[in-house]
Design goal:
mainly beta, 17 strands, six-stranded mixed β-sheet, transmembrane, signal, Immunoglobulin-like, 2 helices, Ig-like_dom_sf, transmembrane helix, five-stranded mixed β-sheet
Amino acid sequence: MLATLWLASLSLPMLWAQKLINCPYKNVCHYALLSGNDVILQCNHPKALWYFSSSMEDKLSLLNSMSNVKILPRSNLQLTNPQPSQTGLYRCLDDHKTRVVEYEIDFQDIALLHVTHKDLGQTPMGNETMDLGGEVVVFTRWDPWQDCNRCEKPGERKRLGYCYVEEQLGKSMPCWLYMREKVTHKRLRPELQLQACQVPCDTITETNQPYFVFDTHQLDKTNDHVWLSCPLASIYR
């Protein structure tokens, strides 16, 4: 028997589906993010060029060789399905080679995600003192709770936590920006926490949603494997 799958995808790739990262003009900003989820680094300059330096090396090169990178209007930089290997420095320079904005991004490996559910009595990872070329404290820096995924009926919400290192002087930095090398340890990982929720429906929000286009796909064999993806899905929302 053929298995018929109805797959839905939004008709237009809208920018709100991707996490927008910004930084004040001429500043350097540090961010921890998760691999596998699209982001846009904002530069907002008409004739800028992007340069990249991996966290594993100091060589700064023109960003034109990554297949998952695209320059958008206003020189904003789109990274599709970014990988941990793309952790490093992203520098946006104007046509006079002057810095417009600079990002140091730690794309933490989503495959290492430590998941807990608050209502099941599961607890996140605690702080841990480690020797990483000096004594430091490894901790999780949490984002705010996201919106409940359902309304009127019981649902769930989530929050993301990123691996950070705090030095003795109180300065903190995302783990792999601090270490600048591949180090494996059970504490060195990002987190995700779930919690039950129930909220009233927002009528305006519910009726102002994009429309869908449906495609039909058939599997030839009952034991065929299929990977279902939502083109505009993001762990950040």
